[in-house]
Amino acid sequence: MANIYERNIPERIATFIQFAEKNPDFSTIFIVTSSDDEGLTYWIDSYDENGADHHIAKRDLIQFCEADMGGSHFCFWDDGQGKSLDEMPVVVAGNEGDFPIVARNFDELLSLMSLGEELYLHGDEASCCNFDGSTQEPEFFEFLTFLEKTLNITPLKTADEGNAIITQARLAFLDEFNLWVNKALKGVDSENQK
In whole numbers, what is the pLDDT of the chain averaged over residues? Predict the structure, then answer.
């Protein structure tokens, strides 16, 4: 199973990981995945359809951090285009089998995280919930300051802004991603079915 520590980590991601390590309480939801976390391996292996070639999924999904408190993970998807980690699309491997594309790149993922809420997952779709900040710890607001001052990312204010990011990611990658899912997780080679 590929994890982020087995790749060249771009500076922006390394900077975020350093922040998360120094401020572990910035979120009870978004916890950077350790190098030995087997959650995604279990998730991939739970797909047992048509003799799927799971080594493709284990090679192309790079688990990054927990997406919710129920065991879902944000993963970078290596779409084979030679992108660095921070340029790769981001998907959620949901704990109930959901598998939506949520961001076109790392910066968009951090923007979604700035809402401070879990994404609502439903199948291959995701959406943001409104956030009023009332349930967040003070460390979360340090995260928002970190985004603005260190990474030059303006935190989102509304769920609609987050949903726009998700929509753009789906428009950019959904068809290609569905072909990949069919091959890597469902054992269906769409190119041979034409």
Answer: 80
